[in-house]
Structure formats: C-alpha cells, structure tokens
Amino acid sequence: MEKQMNLEELVYNFREFIEEAKKNGEYGTFFRKFPTGHIYDRIKKKGGFPMARETIADKIAKKTFNSPDFQKSWAVHMQAFGPILEPAFAENYQARVHLTAALNLISRRDFNGGLKKLQSLQEKCINNNDKAALLLFMGLAFEMGGQQRQMVECYTHANEYGHRFYMPYLKMAKFYMSGHMYDSAEENFRSAIDCFTATGLDDHDRLILGSAYTNLATCLTMMHRYEKAETAIATSATLYPDAPGRFATEALLYAIKGDVSRVEECLSVLKHHAPDAYDSVKESTDNVLARKDPLFYPVPLDGERITGFWTWFGSYVLELNAKLDREEYETALAPVAEKLLETFPFFEEAPYIALGKNEVGYVLELRDMYAIAVENAYKKLMEACPEETKSSWQFSLLH
After folding, report:
1. What percent of the chain has pLDDT over 90?
2. Is 137 helix (H, G, I), strand (E, B) or coil?
3. CB atoms within 10 A of CB 101
4. Which residues have a Cβ under 8 Å from the Cβ of 150 and sit 6 or more positions away?
5. Cα-flanking dihedrals φ and ψ of residue 240, to 5°?
6. Is residue 215 helix, strand or coil?
7. At what angle do helices 93-107 and 128-144 cross, to 10 degrees?
8. Which residues contact 59 (CB under 8 A, 6 or more apart)?
9. Which helix (DSSP H) or strand (DSSP E) does residue 393 occupy?
C-alpha cells in the first residue's frame, strides 16, 4: 500500500507539469516518453484521480467499530455527547476506535490513560468538528481528574471552533460563576442556550434548557439586572416547571423586591421538594429582607481603618514597588490582600485584586464582583487615597 500511495502522490505531482506541457505544445512529445497519457485522460474525464485505497488497518478498525460490544459503548457515549460526538472523525474508523476507547477509560476514572489516547488523536484532526470534540473530551478528563487550569484551557479552545453542544458552555459558565466572574458566566450560559433549537425539544432537552435559564437568572441577579433575571426565570418555568433550583432563585428575587408572601411560597416548595437547600436559601432571603446582605446592600465602614490602610500602604510602598519591579507579583500581593481583609472585616473571602505596572507607574486593580458593599468600600478607600500616593500609583475599580 505504501508503494501505491507514493505512486498516486507522484501522479498528482505530475498534473501541473502535464497541463503546462499541453499549453506549450509538448503534450505528444511528453507522452511518447511517458506512455500513460491515455490513462490520465480517462481519469480526468471521470472527475479526477481515485482516493487512496482502504488499508488493512482501516478495515480492521471498521470491523472493530461496528462490532456489537463497541457499538454498545458508542451508543452510551452518543447519548451523553451526541451533538459533538456524531460529526467527529466522520468515516475515520481508526480515530473513532481510539476515541471510544479513550472515553471508556475516562468513564472508568482512568484519566491519564484516557488522556494519552486522546492526545494520540491530535494528528487525526482534519476539521473543526474533530478539534472541538477532542478538546472537549480532553477537558472532561482534566476536569474529572481535578486539573482545573487545563480543563479551562481545553473547554475555552473547544468553544472557539463554533460547535453546537451545550455541555462545555455550561461547564465554563459554572466555573465563572464560582469565581464571581458573572459577565463571562452570562456569555457562556447564553451560548449554551443557543445550542438548543426552538422546536423539537425532548424531555431531556427541556430539563437542561430550563436549568440553564435558572442559572442564567441567578447570574443576572448577582449583577443586579433583576428584570432580565425575572424574564429568564419565567422562561425556565415554562420549560421545567418543577425544578427546585428555580424556586431558590425566585425566592431571592422576591426578597430583593420585598415581596415577603412570594418568598414564603417559594420557601415552602423548597422545604417540601429540596429540604437540603432550604436552610441556606432561607438564611439568604432573611438577610436580604433585613437589608444585611453585602451582595445587595452597603454596610457601615470604619473611617479609622480606611485611614490606617493608607498609613500602612505608605510604609510598605517602597518594598512593594521593588517587588513589582522584579515581577514578584504573588509576594507583593499577599500583604495588600491581608490588609484589605483587616480594613473591611465584612469581606467573606479573600479580595480579588491585581497588581502591575504600566507606562504611567504602578497599578492596583480592585474587583468588587458586583457586591454592593464591596463596591462601596473600595470607592471610599480610593477617595481617601493621599495625593502623594496618586502621583505614582493608579487605582481602578472593576466588576
């Protein structure tokens, strides 16, 4: 077969030479020396040269793939990943055998074995369908193996190939939600929703789509876009009426609006259908109704602590600048984060901040993650910044 492939490549390489010879009137002379011109003409009339013959390895792979046991595995994976799996490596039975084997290993929690098989398929990728599927499954293996950074890289790259499978978008959306990166979460929730058609939804589709709208509503609520959140919740209700998660988000929305009776209705449903979630949701709605939740309301600030922060910053700034000049960002950042926690005791987790340099000087980026109390605290902090500090430092507030 290797000789046949080389011969076909040789003939293909001659095509331009042949055409050039014909143009120059050397066609007859050339084919008297190379007496296969009649074969070329016959092939040309039939539409071109034939494709490479099926190899023995192809035949074995095709037989293996079509065997009952392999088809059983393929059917299971199709049920879970159909929209992205079906077009992947079409007609390439060798690749599909390796892909099925990799998914079998991952399902048995052999993540390293599955990854090795998936990585061996990289050279088999010839189009976007192949690349999207391979990256998705590599991301899945990394996710199940607890390697979050690699998971994010794979899912992000998979989404760049324009596939129509909701799963990686939902996984990325939930990842961004966990980091309070609600803008990115919203974008991925909407991409996941767009993967479903408006008609022809089966029960499983409606469940997934309803859940996606509920999570989108939660995301929009965190960004204080309450009208859009209510629209998303209403859509979710038409798709998946009995989803307990929806009632948790509804309870929070009604608490923000001050509608106590509707909050109690939602809590009653949760207590009956999702008792494990009831206590945490009730605590959240109670805090919102009492206007004590820092996500949605400002909290009292200690002016002396804010002044103390800038006194400390002035004593640390030369050391801080030196660390940034040496690009020692992590060691530079830790004391600043610690001091912010001391200044604002209501912070429930480490602050999201970044340090760096630009053409003007040094930069401190403060992210409020859409929490009203944090936004208010950072604004007060920046207002109290001494003028001499502002001469070499820039401070910015972002969501």
Report:
1. 67
2. helix
3. 17
4. 138, 139, 142
5. -145, 75
6. helix
7. 20
8. none
9. strand 393-398
Residue 131 has pLDDT above 70, yes or no: yes
Average pLDDT, integer, range 216-228: 96
Sign of CA dihedral 224, 226, 232, 237: positive
Cβ proximity of 229 and 253 under 8 Å: yes
- Least confident segment among 35-39, 78-82, 243-247, 335-339: 35-39
Cα dihedral sign, 179-214-264-258: positive
Over residues 170-175, mean pLDDT = 94
Taking only the tens place, the pLDDT of each residue in 43-96 is: 344 444 444 556 887 888 888 888 898 899 999 999 889 889 999 998 899 999
Neighbour-count burial of 365, counting CB atoms closer than 10 A to its CB (0-12 exposed, 13-18 middle, 19+ buried): middle
**CA quadruple 353, 354, 360, 361: dihedral, nearest 10:** 90
From the number of C-beta atoms within 10 Å of its C-beta (0-12, 13-18, 19+), residue 170 rates as buried
Distance CA 84, CA 45 (A): 38
Cα angle 355, 356, 359 (rounded to 5 degrees) comes to 145
